[in-house]
Records
---
Amino acid sequence: MQPSDAGTPPLVYEAEKYDFEAKVRRIDMAILESLSALGEPRDSMRHKAVEARLHDGQEFFYQNLTIGLTQDVFPFLAELKRNLHLLAPESTLATVNDNPRDLEISVLGEPTHHIFIPLTIPPEPIKPEARAPRIVIVIDDMGESLNVAKRLADLPFPVSFSVLPHSTKARQVAKHGRENNLELLLHLPCEPEGYPKINSGPGTLRANMSPATLERMLVDNLNRLPEVDGVNNHMGSRLTRDKQAMTIVLSHLKGRGKFFLDSVTGPGGCVREISERLHMRYLRRHIFLDNTPKENSILLQLQKAESLARRTGLAVAIGHPYPATLKALETWTRTRDMRIDICKIQDI
């Protein structure tokens, strides 16, 4: 589903069905609300490390945080306990070795956050590398607002437009992106779990289609935006688990010289396996920016992406054309780590 021209978030966001990461984001919000209640700035919190882990087959990002407070630690602990109870009641907060400045938060017995609150925070180092860490920012669900496209194109770093092929302004948005030397993706409608109740829209590729019908549908979608550089899946938690379907999709894209970015909308996908079998580079999303469409939450997700990029060299983040996302990206232009390159998928 896609937002309207006004940028209203969709009522159903497929990734939230697999909700362990949603529980992690609610803890993120509890931390942010606690800092805000005490008048502490958001940037008093830093990611020391971000690490991909699994809980019952669901990927989430474990966060090692440092928080620099301008006041005593105990009011923050009281606010954090209160907000965790309100926003993340399944979580538990514990001290490490009875140190109130060394905290661990868990959900369902799974550690998700480590928080250390030092008396002072030293400048964050960056490891010397052959090249700078990189972040790719993809904005999905493009094609309903040319004004949004213009606002994104005006950012001082490149974002990749992923355009829904049946959207009302798909051609105009793609044209504007290309005129501004931005990367273009086809946001390919793919069958989710629960289809058609969870509706991925017109042009959806379904796992029960015959190979010929599936490929014809793929070709029809591509013909609507033939100039795209690559493709990523819109929804698709069902289709991306089907090896026969994904072999057809990826083989066709390889023949056209286009990449496929796995949006990772659910567990158990086969895109990596099929990509390797076809000798295609496997590309994947790491961070969803705006499952919680609030500016502070999105800025925190961007901070996670920065930490992941510093640690691994690369982070691919996907967002949507929501008002809060646009505002957060504009704010981030002033606060982001300038040592990290923002680039296109084709540049990684």
---
Amino acid sequence: MSKMSRIQIYDKLDKIQIPGTDISPIKFKGVKGLELTDDGNVEVRIELPSQAKGHELEFRTSVKEALMTVEGVQSVGVTLIIQDKAYGQVERQNLLPNVKHPILIGSGKGGVGKSTVTVNLAVALAKAGYRVGLMDADLYGPSIPTMFAIDEQPEANEKGQIIPLEKHGVKLISIGFLLEDDTPVVWRGPLLHKAIQQFMKDVDWGELDFLLIDLPPGTGDVQLSVAQSTRVSGAIAVSTPQDVALIDVKKAISMFQTLKIPLLGLVENMSFFRCTDCGHIHYIFGGDTKMDAGAKLAAEVLGKVPITIAIRECGDDGIPVTLREPESEAATEFNSVAKKIADRLIK
């Protein structure tokens, strides 16, 4: 009798899809036991997520049929264990119990103006009378200190909690407040996770209506840590209207969906340039015509912010355009987006 191959058995199992998911028992890491006997008997023990409940017979049959095609296999026994937890479910804490609406702002890509959008939305919400905080979760490239023109370190209260700095009616925390200038953050996942949790539970945020969380580019450890550490009300995606940016922001949107975080919509930043001399609109990132980023991403467009010299100057000077030029086209768009968010979330 031919000797059975464990590699072939695992390969067959990897081609079977767990009911209710798009993953195999191998990739799910659900194979908890595999016993082979000299006379061709196979006994396999598999743990499955809760989506498989009610489909045990179907799955067991698929496993048996697949393994019986392996050379040397004479019989197959399958033991299934159904977990209470669903595949894709994130174990969430709530380290921000006094914050009504934590909101993630991400892009998947750097350089699209995500922090500029975050800062101006925070100020717009504060101007509208809401209690607002801003957490700079971009630990590798914090820009919030510059965009608020803050060069000081926060102090601690009598409980040992960090007192967030406050400017323009917005409470602020950033790793940039705690490091010397030009000091790089060279941390791996566990340290990043710890820092994110400290920014939540060890900061005296008080009672807030909104906490805007400025995410770093990508879809990695920081994003997952934030999602695991609080109950997020929704996420906002930021992109420029060009294919090279949309490719990455689509990944960010997919990440929000995987983490079961509602997408509030898309802010199309640097959407167009309006000539200050003649008023003609140029769609810099969309060729001769407007590119509709929202249509390409199947996402609601909350606002389309123009590219202007004023936005750049305001960011460098630490005075958001919503304050310095409140009647400008850019400020009007930021205020409109902020109102849409508040109307949707504040009942």
---
Amino acid sequence: MASTLLALDADALAEWVTTHGGQAFHAKIIRSNVLERGVLDYGQMTSLPADLRAALIAELPILSSAETTRTVSRDKTIKVLLQFPDRGGSVEMVHIPPPDKADTRGATLCVSTQVGCPVGCPFCASGIGGLERNLEAHEILEQFLIGRQVGPLRRAVVMGMGEPLLNMEAMNTALAAVHDEMGLGARKITVSTVGFPDRLHKAARQKPRFELAISLHTADDAQRDHLVPAMEGVAIEDILAAGDDWFEQTGREITYEIALLGGENDTPWHAERLAERLAGRRCMVNLIPWNPSPGMNFRRPELGTPEAFRDDLIARGLVATVRWSRGLDGDAACGQLRQRVKQG
């Protein structure tokens, strides 16, 4: 039997409830309280019989994870390290408030799909130590619940630890609950991937309930083999063709992401090459100046370089933005908090 509430689907929860003296409709009340209303304490579910509440408290925890570490940055970005005692491993979740304090629409939540990461990008701390395991659907889903406890959510990005398309079934199950029961619309959820073409073609035909971002990082094949080792030998044109297919199947434009590394992929030549690759494609480009991580032999771009790169792309007909990192003083880049805690 599953050890937590969220690990049970609707039928399994109804069965659990009836075997513990409740009625099948009580299962719907429980799930509605948790997912729609954000109630994470059975004791507050007073519409349930007292004996059933007692059984739930004693035998069926709502969450499988425990918060072990929390950092709060000067810009109020909150990063939480979640530990999974039963199955092992820890992941990061980041709650990013709007940059404008007067904006009351809610925060952006960044969630993880794997413990560790198999992609091995040399500039990202998530891949240090490789992949430990995939998260189960309920372990992904509960990050949204915990994030909502931190504060109201406006949108979410699946850009935390792990490669989402390598755990697509669990991710899709979790996002279905986020959409249908938590009320966060598909256009308010973005999934970021390094772009496995076969998986992108498959996802495009599954009526995806999310927007898509592809972490391209460079328009040069040889350099991408180095920056994204798991994709070595996969031609950039094949990834872009899969992106074109995504647009044709879904009608949704793709965002191509470039983590700008000082002196590595942020030169005018790189901007020109990227513009050539993306010419005529329905997309936008998100430039992300690298967030420094201890022990990694990279540096942030020089002042003004990201904006110059952006302006080069715009002059060549592309839509481009610069997204500066939030939470720089709070280990907010992927994998940093987990590594710091591991190292003591």
